[in-house]
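Hey, can you fold this one?
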Amino acid sequence: MDQLQAVAHAMGLKPYTVSQLITWLYKKRVSSFEDMTNLSKEARRVLSLHYSISRLKLDKIQQAADGTEKFVFMLSDGKRIESVLIPAPDKRLTLCISTQVGCAMGCTFCRTGRMGFVRDLTQGEILGQILGVQRTPLLCKEGRGEVDSCLPHLTSPYKGEGSQITNIVLMGMGEPLVNYDAVASATAIILDDRAFNFSKRRVTISTSGLLPQLKKFAKQFDIKIAISLNATTDEVRNSLMPINKRYHIFELMKYCRDYSRRSRYRVTFEYVMIRGVNDTSQDMKRLVKLMNGIRAKINLIPFNPFPGCDYEGPLELTLNNWYKFLTEHGMQTNIRVSRGQDILAACGQLAA
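Sure. Predicted structure:
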């Protein structure tokens, strides 16, 4: 927003031009300044002289047997990122977007982490994923930008003509809070009623636990947070998630307890279950103790395998025992059904 305001001011454009630009770019999704018909001819001329409207290039799109769709976008420097569109029977259509090319966190159970860090995404590249997916034939309504002709007209048992993305999750490739400035400015546009106009309760940011950035972000944006926990002891979490060596479980839980007292949202905890590593009965009991005083939602996620990783998911009996035990102890618990595994689109499998 600040960048657009600075551009408008530098070019001598009227202050209200900023709101017009935001609406044309993100709500009406035009690809040319000439299409911005409520801007003056002079404003359109000046903008066209100095700027262009670009879009992410779609490199590939895949559809899983369960209807999940994975979009591989090519960036201007030839790097690639992945976004995942997840339909649900209740008409929710969740888009999981990336914030970095690769990731520096080094989580051993995550394919993106094993890819290593390449670079941060810009604000435009983060938002470009939403715009790119919205150009699919099923999602592009009349008067809402151009349909991308290179996209196949995929069908889904959960989607119909004119379906719209209902939820945004910043949980794709990368650790969002490392790329703080770009993610914060993109989040502001995602929520802005002149732009994407998503409800705060339908936007979630996921983090491995960067506490200083998380505290700052939570004060700046009243959206849902998801913590990638995945262990109940520092020893195990250190081995799975190196970030824990800087911000230990005790510190993380202390903050979540405080956040839970003042936020209207529950804290979501993602727990990737790995057979013989973090799925013991002792872990199950420790998890209940860790959640003491926190209004929490626990997502149990069976480990999703990928090439080159020897971890295995939990036994079905183990998963069911965990679910039963946690719910009996008053924990709101979900078993996260892995979506898009056959196209490597499930949690922890992204690596363009």
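The first strand starts at residue 57 and ends at 63. Let me know if you want another pass with a different chain boundary.
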